[in-house]
Amino acid sequence: MNKSELVEALAGQKNLTFKKSEEVINLIFDSMAHELARGGRIEIRGFGSFMVKDYKAYMGRNPKTGEVIKVRPKRLPFFKVGKELRERVNLEEPS
Amino acid sequence: MTKADLIENIYLKTGFSKKESDENVEMVFDLMKSNLENGEKIKIAGFGNFVVKEKATRRGRNPQTGEEIEICSRRILTFKPSQVLKSSINEE
Question: In this structure, are B20 and B53 located in the same domain?
Fold first, then answer.
């Protein structure tokens, strides 16, 4: 499912116009992205949590050429799935 | 940030009542959860993708005791952040 399918699903469930539903979905993901951009943590009970990890600069290699390069310090977002969702995802027998 | 902050933000910016804002936010996460439960991925442009992966059975060890155990096949959920999200996190 992509964002516009999620917008349609919300509109259908809550009897909203596509536009209004889109506004809700955009606000949710925009404010989550904004929170992560300022280094914050997000916790959605029953779904999971998002956090930002800091990485120091290190010497790495270009895997193609073997050339040694300096990797600059960076931050990466991480998601940790919540207990409820982790169990629900695993319920169905893998086919 | 918690779900309550997301609800408050929807309430302040959309004209929905507190109750409606709460129900809308809950519904969004419920829809995402059911979708993932069915093994289907979710792609949110500008944010990232949630993908359900099948892990095969493998032999592992209890790191505490060294005892060899079988780790059953299972399904796990992974999140791959979009390039847009990664760059915005690295902007100073």
Answer: no
- Going by C-alpha positions, the residue among A53, A52, A49, A51 that lies closest to residue A86 is A49
The pLDDT tens digits for B25-36 are: 999 999 999 999
Residue A34, domain extent:
1-38
B21-to-A20, B9, B16, B28 alpha-carbon distances in Å: 12, 9, 6, 11
Q: Say if residue A21's pLDDT is above 70.
A: yes
Of A20, A31, A33, the CB nearest to B85: A33
Q: Chain-wide mean pLDDT for chain B?
A: 95
DSSP state of B3: H
Domain range for residue B72?
A: 41-92
Q: Is A10 in Cβ contact with B27 (below 8 Å)?
A: yes
Contact criterion met (CB below 8 Å) for B44 and B36? no
| Tokens at A35, concatenated | 């929170």
